[in-house]
Each structure stands twice: as C-alpha cells, then as structure tokens.
Amino acid sequence: MDRPDWVSDTVDPGQPSAARMYDYYLGGSHNFASDREMASQVLDLFPDGRLLAQANRAFLHRSVRYLLDQGIDQFLDLGSGIPTAGNVHEIATEANVVYVDLDPVAVAHSEAILAGVERAGIVHGDIRRPDEILDSPVTRRLLDFSRPVGLLMVAVLHFLGSDDEAAGVVSRFRDALPVGSGLVLAHGTLDSRPDEVKRLEEIYRESANPMTARSHSQIERFLDGWDLVEPGLTWAVQWRPDWPDDVPSDPSWCGNYGAVGWKR
C-alpha cells in the first residue's frame, strides 16, 4: 500500500505500537491496520478501553491545569504519544512545552502539528537515555532549568519492564530539575482486574512496546523525593476531579494510579 506522507521509511507498519494504539483508542487517525487489530484484541478484553484512555487523558488535563495554577510555565512531556485534541501546549497556551516520544510516527505528526508553534517542540528520544533528552537542542531552547519545570510521565513508565530501571529514570529526571519542579505521574496497575491486566500484558508483548502493570506499592517507589499533593497516589479518576459527583462508585475501574508532587 502507499505510505501516508507522515510515515518514514524506517517505520514498520506491520509492528503495532503503543503510541498508535493509544491514538486509535482516542479516535485518532494516525495508526495502521496492525495497530487497530491489536487494539481490537484489547477492546475485546476491556470493552470500556476507550473510556479508560479518555479518563487517563482527563487526568493529564487536570494535573497540567493544577501546575499552571501553581505558577509552572514550562513542561517536559515524556512519552507524549501522537498528539490528539487537548495537547499540553493547547491547555498551557502561555507555557513552553517539550514533547518526547520514541515512536517515529508520533514524532513526525508532532513536528507537523507544531510547525510554526514557537513555544513547543518535539524530541525523538528514549526515556531510558535521559541525558540525550535533557541535552537535546530542542529541550535547551525551550526549557530553562534554572526555574521549575513540570515533568509529565503519564502512561509511560509501564513500558519499562524493570522496577529498578523505571525508578532510575524518574530519579535522573528529578535530579536534573530545580527544587519547586512538579511531577505528574500515571501508571497502569494490577490492583484492579488482575486477570484481565495479565492478559493485557500478553497482548502488548507482541507489540513494539511490551508493558508491565504494577501495584500501588511498586509505583510509590518511583515517587521518592517528591512531596505529593492531596490526595496522593490514588486512582486517576479520584485525583481532584472537576465534578466530584461524577467519580464512579468503583474508581478502580480506570485501571491507572495517578499522582502529582513537588520536588523538595
């Protein structure tokens, strides 16, 4: 088939990608048949999977607005994925934003969207190599590391298989940021629907991005060195909801823990 102009020759359309599958869950169009086929397996397992993705996205929006209200005006969004409506730079319109993703389709589409947007840029990078991201010319142009930064790690750490590696990634970025910086973290968990989540891990094992869901206590370890704001590490839908009455009676439904904290 003909390749769309946003697909480079280095992309294998037959290899599903977590970023493109997430794009599909959110109603995007930058995905391939292989992504849709694997996403359909996930949706067979989690019929509410699109709502889960939307709930996770809503948590990102609420937490970014919170950091903005606290004076943060620059953001580093790790594992930003394929941009859909409500990107960070669209919420934080007066802030500088650096997006980072490993998926070349996510990067290419971000570059197209951000063309002419002076306050935002995209880095093609792997969070397992923090120094390359921190030293990128895009990062250095847009972010001032002498002032607080909002570090966004939403639905990205569960694509690192080792607890030690994930903890090390968070601590390396934490150490690079000044006191007063904020962290937004969301992570998929085994604590709700464990049988289905184990099957989910098996499905993603066949993608370019195998995932590892973790327990509350495992995720807590990644938050060392951050002072969490209330209500701490909680179900993402319970984190400062815009409409508290709309929080489901069983918030574990969302399958993700979320937290926001400050570097002390």
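(ticket continues) Second input and output from the same batch:
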Amino acid sequence: MNRRLLIILLCAFIIAAGCSYLVFRVVGNRLIAGHQKTTRVVAAASDIKLGSVIRAVDLTTIEIANPLPKGVILNTKDAIGRGVISDLYLGEPILDNRLAAPGSGGGLAATIPQGMRACAVKVDDVVGVAGFVTPGMRVDVLISGKSPAMATSNEGPITRTLLQSIQVLSAGTDIQKDAEGKPKQVQVVNLLVNPQQAELLSLAGSETHIQLVLRNPLDTAIATPPGTGMAQLFGAVKAPAKLQPAVLTHKTVPRPAARIYLVEVFNGAKRSEEKFVSDEGK
C-alpha cells in the first residue's frame, strides 16, 4: 500500500477519535445534569394568606434539585396546624421561617415577634393614606391636638410626629355603630410597636386626632421636626423694622463767664480801686 495513503488514513482516524471523545463528554455531562439528584419537599397547593392556619389540603409536594434551601420542610406533619406569618403562593416551597412556632396558632397574634405588640389604630380612608397602607409598609404617626399647657391660650392645636418608621401588620375595616345605631365601616390599622410605643398610641387615640404618613421602607432615617401650630399656618409675616433716619443735633457749648480783676491804685495818700474785665480766651 502506498505510504502516503497510510499517513492520510492514520490522520483521519486520529481526528475521528478526538471528535468522538468530545461528543461523548458533552453528551455525558448533559445526561448527568438531567439526572441530577432531587429531593421531594413540601410546597403550597394554593395561595395561603398571612394569618391562616395550614391544613392538609393546603399542601402538596414537589421535587427540587439539590442543594435545598435552608429551613425547607420535608414532611407535611411539620407544617399542618401552624400559622402563616408571610403570604405563601402556589407551588412555593414552604420554609420554616415563614410559619409561626408550633402551638402558637394562626391569626394576627402568630405574626407578632416576642417583645412586640400589635396596636390597633382607627383611621378613615383619607387618614389611612387612601387605602395604600398595606401589611409590610412603614408609616409615621402624626397627632393633632391641644396640650394641657395650651388649654388657656389662644394658640390653637398643634401637630407633631409621635412615632416614626412603624411597620404595618394588617389593614382592614371594622364595622361599628354610630350614634343612631346604624352600622358604619371604620378603617383599622394594626401597627407593630413595643410596649412603650403602645402606651403612647393608646393615649393619643383617645385624646388626639391620629394621621398615618406613608414612607419609603428603605428610608430608615429618623427626623426631628419641631411640630407645627396654628400660629405658624395663619400667623402674619412680620415686616422688617424700618430704620429711623439719624437726626444730627448741634450741642451748644456754654461759653465760660468773663473774669473780673480788681486793681488797687495808690496816688500819694489817695487810694482808689479799678475793675478790669478779661475774656477767657485772652
């Protein structure tokens, strides 16, 4: 056989072997990735709202690839009967930190962290930032009223910022009756506060008018506004005082009195006196 032909065949064999190896590696990696180890975890079978107690019909299982999210629940028994402290959505794996502690039940109480309180504040639709106050938002609490120190003065009410950057737990309506016994809807907003802040809100709700001011959740700066009174809203702007023209006065200096000199003149045995007046400047 021709030596040149053998060299060509050998080169073709080497190239074919290299291409086959590359194809094997690529296909093998894809097959391994397609058969990656998965684990069956507990997930939501439907949308579950905050405060709900999880039932068996609310749960399903799905398979997810490793590594697993931290705190994912693997057994449905670990989730049934626990309250939801954050909204869950269809097909979402259920994590332990999205549920209340076992035995704490559901409802709003299950969403309150230890050491904190949920304080209900009654507001109307306008005061409630026109319905934009929703769970998870942060608000400032403004109060308007007249302090006891101003009871005898004519300064009028004053508005000041009582609390800042307070988290909203829930917002809804509460049906109450008016003076005529007719039902009416009142906007109720539950705020997450500490015990001291709860006392301030309770007193402010009974003695002053409360308004909620919506703020950016990323804005955590605490401002120090001085408060605004009626005098600052309707008080007249004081005009700058006019400068009085300077009046030049000429002060008259009294001239000193003239001095009188007495001169005695002796002419022999005769004696006489002469008076002379002299100016001060001479």
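Agent notes: The first strand starts at residue 38 and ends at 44. Residues 116-221 form one domain. Closing as not reproducible unless the customer responds.
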